[in-house]
Amino acid sequence: MAQVPRTFLITGATGFLGGAVAVAALRSGYGHQLRLLARGSAEGSPRKRLIENLRRLGATNAELHSLGEDFILEADLGAPASFEGHPSLACVERVIHAAALPTFSNNPAIPTVNVDGTLALAHALTPSVLKRFLFVGTAMAVGPSMGRGALIEETDQLAERHDHLVPYTASKAEAERRLRLELPDLPLVIARPSIIVGHTELGVSPSQSIFWVFLVGHMLGAFTCDLEDSIDVVPVDWCANVLLTLATREVLEHDLYHISAGKESSVTISALDQVLAVARRVAPMAANYRRIGGSEIVRTMSRMREIAPGANRRLLLRAMQLYGGFAELNYVFDNNRLRSEGMSASPPFTSYLPHCVETARGISIADQMKWDFK
Ligand SMILES: NC(=O)c1ccc[n+]([C@@H]2O[C@H](COP(=O)([O-])OP(=O)(O)OC[C@H]3O[C@@H](n4cnc5c(N)ncnc54)[C@H](OP(=O)(O)O)[C@@H]3O)[C@@H](O)[C@H]2O)c1
Fold it and tell me: Coil, strand or helix: which one is 256?
């Protein structure tokens, strides 16, 4: 009897990271094996959104043509009946599960999609066929109590639900916990990215998510961190290639990895300032920079309204306060495990930041913010 071809499932390919992972997989020759789980919308099938997103993230016609006929698994993680028992899942050998609601809001669907949907997907796969389930978590699953300026090690330590800054990071921690507890035989590997901003070749043209926060902070000349604090940012294409390697390498040393800049590639706010100033053709914030407390951000509101005309004031303030809360922690996420697997270090944010500025030119802050408030 002919063997059923083993498939490679990627979720979240209409989004930033999942889309970049799908492009990396196409480039590595996995086109025929790919199944992309994506949800339909009022317009119907997600096909058009998927193709547009993969193109935005650099996929060529030839790469898109390498996808099989039935590469879409139309399903909603918030409605497990849409994928449970689906014939496409019977031959899934590898999974990169990047889909989630990564919102900082209190959307009541967060636990349903990020936790229950993840568990339901893992349960729906065929244990005798599945070789790896790569869960994309978040480095911030450790919560905000590790101590300002801490180097966060790759441990199973996760913050309790009440100790998270937002329900989103709590849900990612909860999904990790439940995967380990409820599916002890799942070939699970957890990958926790730090902060993903831009693309080394495409700048922020595929997504301005989070990038606008740096611009607003720079224009304000004030934020919640010191100039000598570090920020752990990685580009989406490097992150996608690392995830692909973690999903496809037969043997890994560990089952939990930070996908982070770590000590060697994190950059200081001062270095960011210098590069941003040149790219924006303005003077550096340098000596005029003020570190402010999270509660003081509200006092910068009138200036923020000048910087971001047309932006929803409530969202702008809440986002700056929340990102301010994360920035204040000054965490760097250790990446020794990745490095000891022989993977390259992340390009530092400053190395591709000018390209991010260039590709954001002419796009208002209000429009850039839409990537984070879809
Ligand atoms: N961006 C970062 O800085 C960062 C940092 C650490 C970890 N991560 C993790 O990386 C992953 C991807 O994040 P991202 O920044 O790429 O987010 P994103 O651009 O918002 O993409 C999220 C993806 O999840 C899909 N999704 C959401 N709800 C779904 C549902 N009910 N059923 C099926 N698919 C659903 C979205 O599909 P639709 O297009 O249909 O909405 C989209 O494809 C997430 O797991 C996030 O936790 C991101």
Answer: strand
